[in-house]
Amino acid sequence: MNTMLRRGALAASMLAVASAGSAQPGILEEVVVVAQKRQENLQDVPISITALTGRDVRVLGLSKNVDIAAQTPGLMFAEGSEQLISISSIRGVSQNDVSFHQEPPNAVYMDGAYISVLSASNFQMFDLERVEVLRGPQGTLFGRNATGGLMHFISRKPTAEAGGYADLQVGDHSQVRFEGAINGSLTDGISGRLAVLDESYDGYADNLTTGKDFRGRDETGVRGQLLFEPTDDLDIRLIGFYAEQDTDLGFKHSANGFDEDGLMFTLPRELNFWGRCPGCDPSGHRDRSADPFKSDFDTEGFFSSETTNFTALVDWDFNGMSLASVTQYMDYEASHLEDGELSPRPGFDLNSGQDTDHFSQEFRLSGISGSMNWVAGIYFLERDASASQDIDVSLAYFDDVLSTFGAIPPGFIAGLGTTDNMLSHWSMDTSATAVFGQLDFDLGDTWTLVTGLRYTRDELDYRFRSTESIDGFPLGPGGLLGETEASDSKSDDDWSGNITLEWRPMENWMTYAKLSRGNKSGGWNAPFLGGVVTDFDSETLDAGEIGVKSLLMDGRARFNAAAFVYDYQDYQGFTFVDFAAQVSNLDAEVTGLEAEFSISPGAGWDISLGLSLLDAQIKDVVLPAGRVTDRDMPLAPDTSFNAMVRKGWDVLGGELAVMLDYVWVDDFYSETLNNPSGLIESYDVSNARVSFRTGNERWEFGLIVRNLTDEEILVYRTPIDVGFNQDHYARPRWVSGQVTYFWN
Length: 744
What we know:
Elements: H1 3-20, E1 32-33, E2 40-41, E3 48-53, H2 54-59, E4 75-80, E5 85-90, E6 106-110, E7 113-115, E8 128-135, E9 149-155, E10 163-171, E11 175-187, E12 190-201, E13 205-207, E14 213-214, E15 217-231, E16 234-249, E17 252-258, E18 264-266, E19 294-295, E20 301-318, E21 321-339, E22 348-369, E23 372-394, H3 395-405, E24 419-442, E25 447-470, E26 473-474, E27 484-506, E28 509-520, E29 523-524, E30 535-536, E31 539-552, E32 557-577, E33 580-602, E34 605-622, E35 628-632, E36 639-651, E37 654-665, E38 668-669, E39 679-680, E40 683-693, E41 699-706, E42 714-720, E43 724-729, E44 734-743
Parallel strand pairs: 6-9, 13-19
Antiparallel strand pairs: 1-2, 3-8, 4-5, 6-7, 8-9, 10-11, 10-44, 11-12, 12-15, 13-14, 15-16, 16-20, 17-18, 17-43, 20-21, 21-22, 22-23, 23-24, 24-25, 25-26, 25-27, 27-28, 28-31, 29-30, 31-32, 32-33, 33-34, 34-35, 34-36, 36-37, 37-40, 38-39, 40-41, 41-44, 42-43
């Protein structure tokens, strides 16, 4: 039997194993992934992958999609303030622009369908079969904006077997989280599954100005599925998803000064840098408390979103080939309000809205012909994204700030009126077409050559308009902050691909070497406070990688590792200019290594370790004062480490288990210039779970403690160039109890 046929037979046989668990105590569970858009053993795929099963997600106490980073080497999230933003970094590849029309360079997929909206890619995980994180360019088969890699969230598929589960968590800050699902046959050849989620908790940060708390959340999600199996060779799966999210938005304030390079640094609370008061920003504000969960601002913020998503998946086997179709429609709407300057006086309030419609269609044809395993496909995307930003600026506040800078005499702007309003609207329409193919050619019993190529054409149309008025009186072109009206269009044609050589010198051991290329189309910046609309070019990443995948100790241990080098051309680097995200093209170089080790030594023990090493440098960055130097890429710590240890005992006819997981993250910067105030110092987090599962495996009871040692963890910071930061802190220690019931 040749290598291709052996792989296909193995993947089919593993489905039952993966769902039922290990056949023998101490033998690691085999994991099936769809990283190459076909079912394969994780150990047979020449891609650096972390795969978390639905059980992993549950026992680790992971709820939001950003939580997976803690046990995924090389993956980082800049996430704060209860999901307003969720910027991912894979091996240092990220784009921190939170403008609502942009697409990220690390793709997010749900059930085979691409999620093109940055805000919509931040969601609660429930009723999942598996999460796959693919590191490195995935341009051939996934293509669109998978420059750094991708995250694929795969929900549980309906089956004819009746069953389901109900999971309830009750925790700190009045947290109540319920998720559950019911599954079964509706009639011959038709199965259904319905899953729901509802979570709420009160705010755990205090606003000393208003006396109210913030960073609370209410979220609801529902996913309904129908699976039609009219014949043994045809599956039609329809998925409908709807979610609502409401959060109480707010940040922590800290003040900045400027060094000789024009870079911002965080002021100690005792330093009177601006001559206004110790630790104050240029407006004279300093939070009364240094506690990261106590703030002082007058405008109570919020973030609300609504997601509607329909996906149709068709798989048809005929004449030794398979035809797959993935059809998706998504509508995403969101609004938000925030106190921009984070002070107890009127300063500037940002009120925004966004609306994106997305339709995509993919067709794939695949098969095995002798020693060749092949796939070919075509992909279409239509995406219409629009957004608005309504900013009210207190002229008295900016008079204080600008006069402190020495830019104007005191009272100059305040004499013009009370409030300057800047209203901006922008939109970007995207039409994309791609054709792609990949061929795996068996060179013998131990060697396989993989080649793939994708050609993509993007058509982009952009429109931007902003108007300005003081106290309701419109200003003409070139007002105080500037008035802008612009429209532009561009076409991007590019290719991505890979060539990989696999070598299997022995059973349970595979080594690979690959060259791959990824790309992301260009776009335009949105100057919220007026000015010139600028564009940026597409980016290209050329990567070289070598890796090894192995099973050791008769299947009781798994060791996977990869080393890589990236040549990043026209990297889309991010800074903040005039309170708005500004992207420009730079070159970068990345080298790194990641490794994962898992072992089940027996007697109820499970241990996993992960390591990521990075050296990610942006070349020839021009600092504000004009000096040219290299900078660290944002969200790219030199070192990160994760670990999980679980021990189970047979008790009272069931299993009592204790689990500890841990992550340590080295220092990293939050933006391209490496402002000292944007430095996130190293931190570590440990979590614990104690559980008991009854012998009939119907009931499970758990106690979860996240952030076990109650660390104050600054996870992200946005330096604002008028002398302060918006600081994002992770949650404090959080204790919850969990009860789960399974039926079948």
